[in-house]
Amino acid sequence: MTAIDEILEQEEQLAHAKRALDLEAIDRIYADDLLLTGVLGEPTCSKNAVMDEIRRGIAQRDGAKAGGASFESSTANEDTKVVTLGDTAVANYRFVVTVKGPNLDFRRRYRTTNVWAKRWPLADRRRANGIRARSAAGGDALGGTEITVGPAPKE
């Protein structure tokens, strides 16, 4: 499997977790020191903030269903491009959200850039980069849902 194939697989796992609002998978993919800028440009900033937003989304979805609301929604990644740069890769794609129901019919398109990098022990200690995900090959990798960089800790 090439590095690009591995990143595409990681992106698919992330997309699936977001579609399903799978808290366990998202918690596993995002590192505790996540730095994220949302697709609308608003900084969410932390893993806790992202997880809280997902919990709100789950509650809203469940509340709408309990109230008898009927709607269909879908998300898809389109036009995905991956470039590798040594132990780092950058993935860029169009994220499309479609919602249809009574008095609802919209399609929104956003651009997302994710940074993925192999994480070696030295980088772990120095915290040179931001988001950790387990790679399909069993190693550690970094990944995110926007450009991510974490600060080096003070020694």
Give an account of the 3D structure.
- With 155 residues, this protein is an alpha+beta fold.
- The protein has a single domain, classed as Nuclear Transport Factor 2, Chain: A.
- The chain has helices spanning 3-20, 23-29, 47-66, 121-126; strands at residues 72-85, 88-101, 104-117, 132-134, 140-142.
- Helix 1 (3-20) runs antiparallel to helix 2.
- The longest helix is centred in the middle third of the chain and has 20 residues, at 47-66.
- Residues 120-155 have low confidence and may be disordered.
Shape: globular
Within the largest sheet, what's the order of strands? 1-2-3
Number of strands: 5
CATH topological fold name:
Nuclear Transport Factor 2, Chain: A
Largest sheet: 3 strands, antiparallel
Low-confidence stretches: 120-155
Structural class: alpha+beta
Describe the secondary structure blueprint for this structure.
Layout: H1 3-20, H2 23-29, H3 47-66, E1 72-85, E2 88-101, E3 104-117, H4 121-126, E4 132-134, E5 140-142
Antiparallel strand pairs: 1-2, 2-3, 4-5
Please summarize what this structure is.
By secondary structure, this protein is α+β, with helices and mostly antiparallel strands. It has helices at residues 3-20, 23-29, 47-66, 121-126; strands spanning 72-85, 88-101, 104-117, 132-134, 140-142.
Label this structure with key terms.
4 helices; 31% strand; 155 residues; alpha+beta; disordered C terminus
